């Protein structure tokens, strides 16, 4: 990383990317119109767009599929070291409802591109295609290599995407930038919380609703357990770059009818914990709570009639139910460890410097509560950070959109960064 780009070269890059604006818009629309909702994914249709682009410029590429049509495409410009990996994902979340136009027929309005994936993450891929075109035209300057990836399966854990590429396909790099964090290029993701997703199953015994004492109500037991889990304490509750740890009850399902005592109830939890804390310790703490509630659940629970709803009742006699012990099962759905890279690493400095030269302000190192594929890269020994354009509220939203100017600015910044690092 030499940091010696001349002023004339920087002006040339700015002019180049301004001239690329319409291509960036067109490529974003092509990628959006290639429908890749995950599930089922079908990333091959978007990979074909990137493949045609690579082919037109003579950029060597490889297609990787762990499962048919769940396609990853990896293009390379230059050779040698250092190597910089930039990965954008080709899959998108389902469109949902109440769009003002077809979410898979992208449109432009008020300086923004609209459509599912515009901000997450196809606009960024189109901007990087402009960067790839610039670097290919200037490949003789390079002493290192850009690895540009259109990845599958990011929205569902990356088992068929970047995790597969790193663990099974031998993809390696010295550095990586993941443009999947939004925040309008005002932040650099240098640390991410751990993400522990759990399912808790409460087992009981079904009986007639008029004779609850003959059954074992799995819902009541799970409610009691969730109340205790809600009060669970974390070992680390503060971090200079993170918000506090969180525990979210994402879903709860149990029972079929009011006149049946339910024998089964399931809940799913999302636990985000800070670097320095331990997922194993959190699990051990939760299991101890489960065992404690199991041991205390036998007894008599009192329920009172709701007089505001049942106004026709003339008396409010208490009902008493005898309940057997609760029995619970805890399953780990997924567990991603917390990750962090040093704030003073050279990648943060070079991103900050070139962002300031284009936007007039340096992005701030911050921590993410969500997870990006920087996790898989960092765990494989690659210095990886998140940085990119887009508004935080746009991803997964109805009428998702991204600013065209931001995409052009991002392309300019990334061209400066890659040429600085690799030339």
Describe this structure in words.
By secondary structure, the chain is of the alpha+beta class. It folds into two domains: 7-192 and 339-422, Zn peptidases (Aminopeptidase), CATH 3.40.630.10; 194-299 and 319-335, Alpha-Beta Plaits, CATH 3.30.70. It contains ten helices and 20 strands. The protein has a six-stranded mixed β-sheet. Strands 11-13-9-16 form a four-stranded antiparallel β-sheet. The chain has a three-stranded antiparallel β-sheet with strand order 4-5-20. Helix 1 (7-19) packs antiparallel against helix 10 (404-422), helix 2 (21-33) packs antiparallel against helix 3 and helix 4 crosses helix 10. The longest helix has 20 residues, at 118-137.
What keywords describe this structure?
423 residues; alpha+beta; Aminopeptidase; Alpha-Beta Plaits; 2 domains; 20 strands; 32% helix; elongated
Number of strands: 20
Structural class: alpha+beta
Radius of gyration: 26 Å
Q: How do the SSEs run, as a string of H and E?
A: HHHEEEEEHEHEEEEHEEEHEEEEHEHEEH
The average pLDDT is 92
Compact description:
This protein has helices spanning 7-19, 21-33, 44-57, 118-137, 162-168, 218-230, 279-296, 346-359, 374-379, 404-422, and strands spanning 61-65, 71-78, 83-89, 107-109, 112-114, 145-151, 175-178, 187-192, 194-203, 207-208, 246-254, 260-261, 264-273, 299-303, 319-323, 327-336, 339-340, 364-368, 383-386, 401-403. The protein has 423 residues and is an alpha+beta fold.
